[in-house]
């Protein structure tokens, strides 16, 4: 993007708002540029956070026909006007009429004045003082401008009138933009300004700055009436000059000039090292007097697609780890701000993403500015969701997009539409405006020697990676509701993250695009199952896949699968084997912090206490290499419950952390289940046996050996009807009961899948259940379950992997700790929007305290690897394949859990981790229960 250094006359907008919008007032060094600048009057606010009211009337829908005011920029649906519509539900009669009075300064006399729109949806007609400013602009996501020099009255009040049609008069524009799989909005949703250029001017600058230091700037000129010169000077962003100035002579009437130089050993731009420069360009007359000055920010970097090999930046192969992002906020629509752009980029960086695809239109310019500054590779996209622009209307839109965005070093590729929405006649138009000659992609197919095909299965992904073409799926693992995104990613990334022709990929998608409906009392509208595809919720609530992606895409990975099971490898020697998955960064630029911790006990809250800690600089491990991190742990480190290790990048951002258990399930069982003196009595009736220890009474049914009743201090606890096989069947064959030391035992035998169940109530009030079952073959899940009414549940505190639920193909991203959460019935992406969700499968549980209206039910596992299932989660409408099986019992203790699918694929097609569990034969577990007040 060209950043014109401007004198800004902010019509109702403060300097802070202008700075946030990326409109600087001076050069970065703080000194004004030589010569006249472009002067700007912002007629709207600078962004959605800093709007300015305009007069407004909508022609149909809510509040139609009445003149009022509306904050601008905005989409009018979010201010009570017009109608909401998704996808192909067109509303051709809905138009917005805007009015704005403005007074440009008399000092603009002799300047060329343009009325500039960053974007409006979609057909836009403009009148200044009652006279048309020019032909209707068509296309809703692109900058456009009108020369209004002859229409404005300087130093006097002027009337600007704008009519924005929600749908276009050009059917190909509607096809490309308004019939896509996303919300359609209307309005002036990006800023509008007056730009006053000197009569002889620099109209735009397009930079080509290569990694080796070669620099060229194509300068477009206008109004040059006499011979002169165009001069350039490269500077760092602090204003320090880099090399000397360079210039080229221009003749009278010149409309273009190219200035060139070479910078020795420039700091290169990558997503890991976002080094930026600026070039100051001055147009001067023959006497050397500056006529117009501007400045452009850029980065030195080179992009290559090496056929049959990969994508290279600055000569190094890179792997793109990204998401598809719509410009979206649930109360703003497509209107945005630098604050919201920074929020989204921060979320992506937190997930260790290094790339973003602009689906399915070019974003706000400030979003690309922040990608340059913070380091994020970009695929910039022309609109066209499965349908295309006609060439006549499309060619100016390509020009507008590329001319605006050409100088962003973050942009690696131009996308010509999406999923068939490309007009091949426009493919060569991109290069006409881009001196860097970046490649054009056709997302969904193979073009420019890059295969971007969407939603491949695990098997077809393996075939693609093994093929002869660079593979970069621009959409994969569709994140409908709680499926996809992180689920299956571990297997996919083993193929896509390091294969010879694997260049990475882009998950669909970043955000649940659900809107707040003021006509429905503030209800969140997900458009059925069309909008909730995100890794984060509409207000950026972090769903479970967020943390899975963060773990899998961390640039620092562990080189032992044992570590990812949260257990230590045999004979741990205080060294951790790590793999450097950065493309450019050595691990010696990173820092690591270790902490020894003890976990909170039941009833003591969540979290852990740190018993010892230390930090160290990373070892010398080059990108792609493996090395060891030696931890200076104290001699008594085995006395702690767990070891936590955290890695931070060169900028101090946490990239990943791990928590490894030192103490095992048996240690916590011993710690919690403490013997006491006393005795247990038993009474028998024709139907049951009741064991009593103090105020705790446990009743076992004689017909099936299952728990039929629990009371504590006279209060009934509704845990019943278990242990029942979660999968399979069994036949009760007999029961016995007897005293066992300080306890009492009820022993049951079965034939079938459940083989035995042994209940033992001890004098201390702890109830032990030992059970055995047999499972072979393939099953979604196996273990045992109980009935408990979820209406009685209030919350859970547990020691295990959390805080999020898991699936068989989404076990990464959770961490061992003592977690707590309140009961909720969130349907991921569809309703509730309270995270972490309460219900579902929870991994590697040691103990759990279920808070209920009947008291606290504490459960302790005696063995490793227990999955605790808590009830059946709610799901959104028509989840397609984004579903998972659950046992019939609401409370389950399991040794195997199922995988989840995504919108387009059943779980079984997503790789090894997504296959059903294969029973290993005989299983035996002990669970301890205690019923508290």
From TrEMBL:
Keywords, sorted A to Z: Glycosidase, Hydrolase, Signal
Reactions it catalyzes: Hydrolysis of terminal non-reducing beta-D-galactose residues in beta-D-galactosides
Signal sequence segment: 1-31
Hydrolase is among the record's keywords: yes
GO annotations of cellular component type: beta-galactosidase complex
Gene3D superfamilies named among the record's database cross-references: 2.70.98.10, Galactose-binding domain-like, Glycosidases, Immunoglobulins
Record's protein name: beta-galactosidase
Taxonomic classification: Bacteria, Bacillati, Actinomycetota, Actinomycetes, Micromonosporales
């Amino acid at each position: 993007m060209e950043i014109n250094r401007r004198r800004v006359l902010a019509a109702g907008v403060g300097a802070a708002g202008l700075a946030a919008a990326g409109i600087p007032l001076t050069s970065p060094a703080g000194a004004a540029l030589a010569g006249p600048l472009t002067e700007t009057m912002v007629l709207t606010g600078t962004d959605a956070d800093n709007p300015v009211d305009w007069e407004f009337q909508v022609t149909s829908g809510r509040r139609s026909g009445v003149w009022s005011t509306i904050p601008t920029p905005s989409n009018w649906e979010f201010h009570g006007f017009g109608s909401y519509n998704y996808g192909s539900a067109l509303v051709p009669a809905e138009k917005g009429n805007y009015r704005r009075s403005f007074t440009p300064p008399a000092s603009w006399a002799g300047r060329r004045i343009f009325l500039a729109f960053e974007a409006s949806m979609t057909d836009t007609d403009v009148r200044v003082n009652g006279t048309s400013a020019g032909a209707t602009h068509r296309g809703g996501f692109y900058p456009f401008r009108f020369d209004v020099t002859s229409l404005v009255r300087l130093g006097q009040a002027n009337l600007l009138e704008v009519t924005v049609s929600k749908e276009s008069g050009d059917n190909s524009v509607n096809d490309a933009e308004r019939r896509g799989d996303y919300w359609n909005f209307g309005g002036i949703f990006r800023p509008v300004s007056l730009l006053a250029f000197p009569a002889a001017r620099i109209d735009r600058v397009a930079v080509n700055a290569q990694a080796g230091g070669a620099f060229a700037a194509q300068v477009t000129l206008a109004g040059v009436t006499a011979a002169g010169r165009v001069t350039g000077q490269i500077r760092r962003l602090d204003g320090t000059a880099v090399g000397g100035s360079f210039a080229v002579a221009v003749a009278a009437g010149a409309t273009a000039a190219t200035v060139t130089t070479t910078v020795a050993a420039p700091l290169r731009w990558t997503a890991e090292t976002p080094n930026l420069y600026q070039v100051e360009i001055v147009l001067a007359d023959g006497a050397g007097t500056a006529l117009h000055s501007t400045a452009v920010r850029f980065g030195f970097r080179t992009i290559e697609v090496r056929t049959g090999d990969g994508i290279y930046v600055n000569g190094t192969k890179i792997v793109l780890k990204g998401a598809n992002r719509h410009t979206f906020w649930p109360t703003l629509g497509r209107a945005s701000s630098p604050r919201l752009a920074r929020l989204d980029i921060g979320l992506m960086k937190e997930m260790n993403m290094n790339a973003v695809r602009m689906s399915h239109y070019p974003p706000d310019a400030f979003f690309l500015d922040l990608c340059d500054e913070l380091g994020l590779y970009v695929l910039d996209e022309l609109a066209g969701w499965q349908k295309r622009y006609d060439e006549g209307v499309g060619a100016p839109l390509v020009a507008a997009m590329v001319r605006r965005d050409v100088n962003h070093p973050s942009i690696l590729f131009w996308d010509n539409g999406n999923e068939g929405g490309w007009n091949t006649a426009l493919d060569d138009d991109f290069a006409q405006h881009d001196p860097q000659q970046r490649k054009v992609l056709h997302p969904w197919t193979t073009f420019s020697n890059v295969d971007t095909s969407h939603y491949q299965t695990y098997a077809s992904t393996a075939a693609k990676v093994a093929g002869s073409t660079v593979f970069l799926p621009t959409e994969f693992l569709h994140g409908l509701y709680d499926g996809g995104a992180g689920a299956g990613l571990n297997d996919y990334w083993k193929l896509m993250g390091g294969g010879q022709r694997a260049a990475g990929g882009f998950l669909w998608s970043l955000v649940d695009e659900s809107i707040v409906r003021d006509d429905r009392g503030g209800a969140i509208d997900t458009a059925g199952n069309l909008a909730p595809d995100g890794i984060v919720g509409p207000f950026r609530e972090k769903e479970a896949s967020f943390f899975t992606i963060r773990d899998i895409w961390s640039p620092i990975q562990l080189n032992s699968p044992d570590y990812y099971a949260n257990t230590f490898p045999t004979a741990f020697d205080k060294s951790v084997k790590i793999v450097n998955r950065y493309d450019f960064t050595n691990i010696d630029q990173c820092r690591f912090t270790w902490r020894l911790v003890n976990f909170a006990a039941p009833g003591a809250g969540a979290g852990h206490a740190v018993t010892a800690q230390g930090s160290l600089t990373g070892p010398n491990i080059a990108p792609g290499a493996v090395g060891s991190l030696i931890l200076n742990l104290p001699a008594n480190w085995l006395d702690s419950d767990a070891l936590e290790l955290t890695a931070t990048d060169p900028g101090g951002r946490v990239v990943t952390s791990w928590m490894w258990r030192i103490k095992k399930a048996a240690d916590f069982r011993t710690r919690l289940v403490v013997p006491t003196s006393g005795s247990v009595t038993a009474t028998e009736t024709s139907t049951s046996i009741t064991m009593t220890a103090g105020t705790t009474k446990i009743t076992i049914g004689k017909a099936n050996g299952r728990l039929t009743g629990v009371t504590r201090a006279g209060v009934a606890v509704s845990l019943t009807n278990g242990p029942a096989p979660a999968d399979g069947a069994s036949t009760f064959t007999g029961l016995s009961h007897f005293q066992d030391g300080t306890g009492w035992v009820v022993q049951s035998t079965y034939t079938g899948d459940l083989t035995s169940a042994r209940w033992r109530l001890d004098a201390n009030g702890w109830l032990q259940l030992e059970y055995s079952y047999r499972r072979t073959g393939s099953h979604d899940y196996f273990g045992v379950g109980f009935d408990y009414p979820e209406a009685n549940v209030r919350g859970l505190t547990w020691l295990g992997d959390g805080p999020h639920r898991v699936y068989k193909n989404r076990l990464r991203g959770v961490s061992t700790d003592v977690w707590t959460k309140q009961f909720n019935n969130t349907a991921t992406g569809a309703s509730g929007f309270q995270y972490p969700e309460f219900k579902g499968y929870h991994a590697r549980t040691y103990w759990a305290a279920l808070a209920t209206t009947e008291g606290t039910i504490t459960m302790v596992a005696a063995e490793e690897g227990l999955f605790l299932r808590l009830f059946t989660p709610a799901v959104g409408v028509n989840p397609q394949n984004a579903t998972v099986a659950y046992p019939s019992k609401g409370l389950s203790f399991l040794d195997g859990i199922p995988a989840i699918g995504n919108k387009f694929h059943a779980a079984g097609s997503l790789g090894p981790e997504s296959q059903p569990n294969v029973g290993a034969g005989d299983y035996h577990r002990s669970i301890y229960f205690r019923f508290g007040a």
